[in-house]
Each structure stands twice: as structure tokens, then as C-alpha cells.
Prior knowledge:
Elements: H1 4-19, H2 26-33, H3 37-43, H4 47-71, H5 78-95, H6 103-111, H7 116-142, H8 152-173, H9 177-190
Amino acid sequence: MKKSREKIIEVAAELFHKMGYHQTSLDKILEESGVTKSNFYYYFRTKEELALTVLDIRIKQFESEVVSGALGESHISPKNRLLKLYDRVIKFHRVLKCKGGCPFGNLAIEMSDVNDKFRERLSQFFTRWEKAIESCVIDGIEKGEFRSDINPGSTAGIILSQLEGAIMMVKTHKTIDSLVKGTQTVLKLLEAA
């Protein structure tokens, strides 16, 4: 049986992803988790503290499973590392049936202009993700797999932006096509002649 803190975090993560931070009330979290208000306040001072905890957990999990789990595998080729990254993102959105979008992108759009705590954590997360992509691109250039006339930093920024934009299209059009086509296009553009 899950402890109250775990139930609160699990329910809050799902609701924040589905409804957004502002649209998710503390009462809704308590109702769906079956936890009392006094029990909630034993673990968290505010809804914001809960949301930041959820964000930190999601970031740690994503970096471990997706970023390091795909881009950090230096024993496979850079192209295959990027493919693995895209495959994991595509799988995530297939499981969600193209609903919800990117939990990080959604939160960045909703909170970056109104709360610096969220903005700073998300900025640091996206920067680390971009740097991991950049390292993969550099490795691909050095191994002759990717074009040598591209700037690795700029290319990493474009790849991350393309991924986040494609996820928005997945959510909007309710089809995985933009992620699949984006994967093919990005890899084709990177290919060494």
C-alpha cells in the first residue's frame, strides 16, 4: 500500500500534466489521492512546494531514463543514440494516446512568466538536455557520421526545439506523425555526405 506522500505526488503529477498547475486545485489532489488536508500539510507546506517536488522527480526520472538512457550510451553510434532518444519520446506519447503533451514544455509555457522557481528549474533542465544532445552531435561529427559544417550547439538547440514543437503538434492533432516525420528529417539533415 502506498504511503500518503507517494499517493499525493502520484496524483498531483498526473493532474498537473493533464490540467496544468493553475487548473489543479489542492482539493482535487486531496480528493483523488484520498489524503486529508492535515496529512497533506504534514508533507508539503504549499501546492507550489508539491509541484516543485513533482517537477524535480519527473526531471530526475526523465534524465535517467531518456537523456542518459539514450544519449549517454557512448557504446552505440551517435545516430542510434539520437534515434533512441526520439524512440523513447515517441513511445511516451503513444502510451499517452497523444494527450497531455510534454509535462516540462506545458509547465514552462504556463509558469515561466509567473514563477521564477519553476522557470529556473526548467531552464536548467532544458540546458542539460541540450548539452547532452550537443555532446552526441559533436561525437557524430568526430566519427564522420554527421555533417562537419554544422554548429553542434546551435544544432542541439534546433533538435530540442523541434522535439518540443513536434510534441505540441502531437497534442494538438492527436497523432504521432509530427514526431515520426521530425525524427526522419532531423537525422537526414545531420547525415554526412
